[in-house]
Design goal:
By secondary structure, the protein is mainly alpha-helical. The chain has 14 helices and no strands.
Amino acid sequence: MAKTPPAISEPAKTADPDPLPSQGMLQSPSGSAQRIGGIAAALGLLGLGLWILKGFLAALAWAAVFAIASWPLYRRLVRALPNGAERAVAPLLFTLALGLLFAVPLSFLGLEIAREMHRAVALVTELRKSGIATPDWLRRLPFIGGQAAKWWHHYLGDPYAARALLSEINTATLAETARALGGEVVHRLTIFFFMLFALFFVLRDGATLSNQLSRLNHRLFGRRGDVTAAHMISAVQGTVYGLVLIGFAEGVLIGIVYVVVGLPSAVPIAALTGVLALIPFGAPVVFCAAALYLFSTGALVSAVAVLAVGFLVVFLADHWVRPILIGGAAHLPFLAVLLGILGGLETFGILGLFLGPAVMAALASLWRDATGTRAAAAARLRKVRERRARIRR
């Protein structure tokens, strides 16, 4: 009988030390979960980036405002220069010119303020030594001239009383205030120079950056975002033209009156008038003080002339020219322009003068879209752009 061969036993199966995950474990997360995770990561990175750049956000915002406002003028410079100047020469020349445009008058104003402070220190020194005689114009003031002259003679005319009055002033506090003011000036100058540095790159890569932001805006918000962005850009440009240029014009016109009537230090006072004219109703603070000084010296006609010309210029500028330039650019009513400027100034400081109207323009654009007046607003915006294009040509 034939023997059957012995059965060959199969080797024992050993457990896989690294088994493959099951099909359920390989399943990818849903599309909504991926989108939520992507948005969360993007927002986290955006917040981290803003936190890192928090010390430079003001300079970057100023660079964006100046780039938007001066972009048409910059394109004219690029077209006037040879090919290839757009990458370095044109933005460098434009940035230097803009820096000098602000640095020269502000430096002159700072020097004049320093001279006036020196005169104030000399006046205080004289007051401590011999007192100051009561001026004749003080006695001639109606209703209060007699009492004011007595007060002046008692507290400022007598050197002992003057020294007692000045001894109450804490010199340490004054020194600390001066150091704080100096530190603030240095801080503002640092922001200014960083703004110029950032402006160079914004101008150099402005076309590419504009196209990228436009595509992103259209992808996120569609045509509504395009129209809203156009209104905001027009509001920023109109605000710069309406505030800076009109403020400069107010300072020049009222400054001419200062020179004609013989006001002392007419040029720095005119510069201060132009700076405060950036704020609605800010210029009257300066020319009313100048008129009061002229009246105190007996120059009644000169004081009336300063007041009359000043209020006329401010009335025409704040109630006619500025609403047309700012409100007409983004189709904003005068009240919205005024509240945007004042509210922006209170919230963001000087930068808010330009951000406030831009935000109001965006809100007005959304309001017109919600109330069904978008088509008429878009047609008016096209007319404004066509009129600006004709002016630029």
